[in-house]
Amino acid sequence: MTSRDANNSAKKTEALGFEQHDHRTCVKKGMSAAEARCAEEGLRFTSVRQKTLEILLQEHRALGAYEVLDRLREDGFGSQPPVAYRALEFLVSNGFVHKIEKLNAFIACANPGTTHSPAFMICRECESVAETQSMPARGALGEAAKAAGFMIEKTVVEAEGLCPSCVDKAVS
Fold first, then answer.
1. What confidence tens digit (pLDDT) does each residue in 106-149 have?
2. What torsion, rounded to 10 degrees, do the Cα atoms 39, 129, 86, 42 define?
3. CATH number corresponding to 3-171
4. N or C, which end of the chain is more exposed by having fewer CB within 10 Å?
């Protein structure tokens, strides 16, 4: 393998998000981006919204609303479901968090502050989730939409399979 191949392989892994990395830096970066955007756009980034985002950034996996609620309760934010649902709704509607339909769960956006069409790879064994970019206007879906006179505004792509760690375990 050449150094170029190794660099491309590293970039692919990084884009998919299954790599090991410093979570503190990741959490700090995600929180800073959200705080800056909220300040810039005059959005209310309340303490419960901040804590909800922090919880999702720390996990790097999708969490159900009740898991989020349990964590919020542990931190003194109340125990009523609307507490979590309202915070999650705000975070999703502003692009800080995505809802993973397959898991009925939520994950922090890997690319906050950018307009993008995410695609999610969901491990069927450990339920880890990685986010990457999709190009819905290109490829077969884009061509089909164009042929039908349809303009794609939003897509949700969710692929199920095995993450690198689970593939390694399956091969062993």
1. 999 887 767 777 889 999 998 888 888 777 667 788 889 889 99
2. 10
3. 1.10.10.10
4. C
pLDDT of 74 strictly over 70? yes
DSSP-based three-state secondary structure for 88: helix
Q: How confident is the model at residue 32 (pLDDT cuts 50, 70, 90)?
A: very high
Taking each helix axis from N to C terminus, what angle separates 81-93 and 65-74, rounded to the nearest 10 degrees? 110
The answer for residues whose C-beta is within 8 angstroms of residue 90's C-beta and 6 or more apart is 43, 49
- In this structure, the number of other CB atoms found within 10 A of the CB of residue 37 comes to 16
Q: Where are the domains of the chain?
A: 3-171
Q: What are phi and psi of 119, to 5 degrees?
A: -125, 140
